[in-house]
Write a structure and sequence with these properties.
Elements (H helix, E strand, L loop, with lengths): L1 H18 L4 E12 L23 H15 L10 E7 L2 H8 L9 E5 L9 E7 L3 E9 L14 E8 L3 E9 L7 H25 L4 E7 L7 H6 L2 E2 L10 E3 L2 H5 L5 E3 L2 E3 L2 E6 L1 H4 L12 E2 L6 E3 L5 E3 L3 E2 L2 E2 L9 E6 L1
Length: 338
C-alpha cells in the first residue's frame, strides 16, 4: 500500500513540475495587404479584386497570396507557431479560414475570431489563436461612428477575451485605424477619435480590474510618437511608472531608433503598434515580457531592394502592377513568457 501511495505521489509531483515549466508565447500582428477572395461582393468596393477587375486578380494570384502569407507567419518563431496572430485587411472569414488551412499553418490548429466591419472596401480585422494554448471566451467589437461625419465608415476594433496558459485572462484589441489619405495632419482627427473610443474601453476594463492584462495591436496609420497613440491612448515608452494602469508601446523605442514596419517613398514609418498593460512587464511571477520585447520580422526573403538600396516589404501590388510579394507591411511581434 505504501509503495502504491508513493508511486501516486511521484506521478503527481512530476505532473505538477511539468505544468510549471517555462513557456514562451509568440504574439504577432500583421497587416496582410488586401487579402481578398476573387468573388465580387455587390455591397463592397472589391471589384478590382476579381479576375476581370483592374488588378486582374485571378484565383492563381489569390492562392499565391495565401501561400506567401502562410510562409511568413510560420517562420516568425522558428521553434513553434505563434500563439496569437492579429490580422488586418482581410476581406471576410472565408479568406481567414483559407489562410489557416494552408499546408504550413494547418498543424497549428488555429481558431478564428472575426466580425464583418462596415468599411466600404469590406476589409476587417481578425484574430487567430492556437486552441491548445489560448482558451477563447468571447469577442465583440467597438464600433466607430464619427459624430460629424455619419457617412464615414471605418473598421471596427475587434476585442477578444480568452485565457492563456490555463490561468491568465487576456483582453486583446485588434485595430486598423483610418488612413492618412488627404494628408497626415488633416486626417489626424479621425485617428484621434478612434483612439478615444479605444481608451474608453480600456479604462472601463481597468476600472473594473486594476490588474487586467491587456494587449493592443494594430495598424494605427500613426506612429508611437503621434498624438493618437502617445497622448490620447497614453501609450508611451516610460519605464519609470508604478501605475498598474499604464500602457507601454513596445514599438516606441524602435521608432526612435529610425526603424519601421512600413516604407513610404524611402522613409520608414512605425505604423504597426504593439501595446501592453504595465502589469505584463512589472509582474515578477507568471505571465510577463520586457521593455525590449518588440520586434519587426524583416527577413530578406520577404523584402525587395528599392533603387536606393533599402530592403523594404515585398508587396503584392503597387497600384495596378502585380509583383506577387507578401505584404506592404512587415509583421511585428513579441514574446510573452511564463
Amino acid at each position: 500500500m505504501f509503495k502504491k501511495l508513493l508511486f501516486v505521489l511521484m506521478v503527481t509531483l512530476i505532473a505538477f513540475s511539468c505544468s510549471q515549466e517555462k513557456k514562451e508565447y509568440t504574439i504577432v500582428f500583421y497587416n496582410v495587404e488586401n487579402l481578398f477572395d476573387t468573388i465580387n461582393d455587390p455591397i463592397t468596393w472589391d471589384d478590382d479584386f476579381t479576375p476581370k477587375g483592374k488588378l486582374e486578380y485571378t484565383n492563381e494570384r489569390y492562392q499565391q497570396k495565401l501561400v506567401n502569407l502562410s510562409s511568413v507567419l510560420s517562420s516568425i518563431n522558428k521553434n513553434d507557431f505563434p500563439t496569437l496572430i492579429g490580422l488586418c485587411e482581410v476581406e471576410n472569414r472565408s479568406v481567414v479560414e483559407a489562410l489557416v488551412n494552408q499546408e504550413k499553418l494547418k498543424d497549428a490548429d488555429y481558431g478564428i475570431a472575426h466580425t464583418d466591419s462596415p468599411d466600404g472596401r469590406g476589409i476587417d480585422c481578425a484574430l487567430l489563436y492556437r486552441k491548445n494554448e489560448f482558451k477563447y471566451l468571447s469577442h465583440d467589437v467597438i464600433g466607430i461612428k464619427f459624430p460629424n461625419e455619419p457617412n464615414y465608415k471605418t473598421r471596427d476594433i475587434l476585442h477578444v477575451q480568452g485565457i492563456i496558459g490555463a490561468t491568465d485572462t487576456l483582453h486583446l484589441f485588434i485595430n486598423h485605424w483610418p488612413s492618412r489619405i488627404g494628408g497626415v495632419e488633416k486626417s489626424e482627427k479621425n485617428r484621434v477619435f478612434v483612439a478615444e473610443q479605444l481608451k474608453l474601453a480600456v479604462d472601463k476594463l481597468q476600472n473594473e480590474n486594476t490588474n487586467a492584462k491587456i494587449i493592443i495591436m494594430g495598424d494605427f496609420n500613426d506612429e508611437p510618437t503621434n498624438k493618437s497613440a502617445n497622448e490620447t491612448l497614453a501609450a508611451t515608452n516610460s519605464k519609470e511608472t508604478s501605475n498598474p494602469k499604464a500602457l507601454y508601446n513596445l514599438m516606441y523605442d524602435l521608432k526612435v531608433e529610425g526603424k519601421g514596419s512600413y516604407n513610404y517613398k524611402g522613409n520608414w514609418n512605425m505604423l504597426d503598434n504593439l501595446i501592453i498593460s504595465n502589469n505584463l512587464i512589472t509582474n515578477k511571477k507568471g505571465l510577463h515580457t520586457n521593455y525590449q520585447a518588440g520586434k519587426i520580422f524583416t527577413e530578406e526573403w520577404i523584402c525587395y531592394k528599392t533603387p536606393n538600396g533599402i530592403s523594404a516589404p515585398s508587396r503584392s501590388y503597387s497600384g495596378p502592377k502585380y509583383y506577387g510579394g507578401y505584404s506592404d507591411h512587415f509583421p511585428v511581434y513579441f514574446q510573452l513568457n511564463r
